[in-house]
């Protein structure tokens, strides 16, 4: 029994090492959120067992939780590099599949058709506004800057204000508000499904997304010309790495000791 108990410990230690290694590998990944592993004990007993004789038979991985604490902000100077100074996620839609993704990575640019996109081509979503800049609908839409305005003047630049207003400036000096950056919130963010590229998708655990504009409710303001960096603390992860290594070594030693005991019993002579 001790072999299997320690074997569970070895597998759990290997999983913990994998989680820590992934955190360290993404210490410089923009918008990355670190993970933490939680263990649960396993016991051998039934409802009729004497509670004073119930013994543990190892542990199991209970969950791998994501930590959505804010990471440090780095200034880049690029107008379409965005960071959220608070809670929420940027919302993106794939023009190919129509799937919706959520991210804290605000590294955006503009494609040839004027859409504001990430490096994969997913389109940033904004909330539509009226002529006075008031949000008219809670349903997000693609952020797109027309190449020319009604007077035929060419697009010069697109900037984003602290309240999420996306402003397109044209050669004739006119400006047009394209909408306000749509921020998504969830009842349970740790329930979001990681799909890579610092993107998440909603699940039944996270609940559906509810949308708002920067500065409203619990949403923070928008920082233009900045990017949120990974929230991985390298010193903390290194301490966890040492602890996980000792955990692995201790379980390996327990297996070695059990092997020696078994060998001693087998070698007994009558």
TrEMBL record:
Q: Which residues form the Flagellar hook protein FlgE/F/G-like D1 domain?
A: 83-165
State if Secreted is listed as a keyword.
no
Question: Taking every annotated instance into account, which residue ranges of this chain make up the domain Flagellar basal body rod protein N-terminal?
Answer: 3-33
Pfam families, alphabetically?
Flg_bb_rod, Flg_bbr_C, LlgE_F_G_D1
Q: Which cellular component, as a GO term, is one annotated location?
A: cytosol
Q: Which UniProt keywords apply?
A: Bacterial flagellum, Cell projection, Cilium, Flagellum
Where does the Flagellar basal-body/hook protein C-terminal domain lie? 224-268
- Classify the source by domain of life: Bacteria
Cell compartment(s), UniProt: Bacterial flagellum basal body
Main subcellular localisation: other
Q: Which InterPro entries match?
A: Flag_bb_rod_N, Flagellar_basal_body_rod_CS, Flagellar_FlgE/F/G, Flg_bb/hook_C_dom, FlgE/F/G-like, LlgE_F_G-like_D1
Asked if the Swiss-Prot or TrEMBL record annotates the protein with the keyword Transmembrane helix, the reply is: no
Q: Name one GO biological process term.
A: bacterial-type flagellum-dependent swarming motility
The family line of this record is:
Belongs to the flagella basal body rod proteins family.
Which PANTHER family is this protein grouped with? FLAGELLAR HOOK PROTEIN FLGE (PTHR30435:SF1), FLAGELLAR PROTEIN (PTHR30435)
Any idea what this protein is called? Flagellar hook protein FlgE
């Amino acid at each position: 029994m001790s072999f299997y108990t320690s074997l569970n410990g070895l597998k759990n230690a290997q999983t913990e090492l994998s989680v820590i290694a992934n955190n360290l590998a993404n210490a410089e990944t923009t918008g990355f959120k670190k993970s933490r592993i939680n263990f649960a004990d396993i016991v051998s007993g039934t409802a009729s067992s004497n509670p004073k004789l119930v013994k543990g038979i190892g542990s199991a991985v209970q969950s791998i939780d994501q930590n959505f604490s804010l990471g440090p902000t780095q200034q880049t100077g690029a107008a379409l590099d965005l960071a959220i100074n608070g809670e929420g996620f940027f919302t993106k839609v794939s023009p190919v599949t129509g799937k919706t993704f959520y991210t804290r990575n605000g590294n955006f640019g503009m494609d040839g058709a004027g859409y504001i996109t990430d490096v994969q081509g997913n389109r940033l979503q904004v909330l539509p506004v009226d002529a006075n800049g008031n949000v008219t609908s809670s349903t997000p839409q693609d952020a797109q800057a027309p190449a020319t305005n009604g007077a035929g003047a060419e697009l010069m630049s697109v900037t984003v204000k602290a309240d999420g207003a996306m402003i397109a400036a044209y050669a004739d000096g006119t400006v047009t508000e394209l909408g306000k950056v749509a921020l998504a919130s969830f009842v349970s963010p740790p329930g979001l499904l990681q799909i890579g590229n610092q993107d998440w998708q909603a699940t039944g655990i996270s609940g559906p997304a509810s949308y708002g504009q920067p500065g409203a409710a619990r949403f923070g303001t928008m920082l233009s010309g900045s990017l949120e960096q990974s929230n991985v603390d390298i010193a903390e992860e290194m301490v966890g790495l040492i602890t996980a290594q000792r955990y692995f070594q201790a379980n390996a030693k327990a297996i070695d000791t059990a092997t020696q005991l078994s060998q001693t019993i087998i070698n007994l002579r009558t």
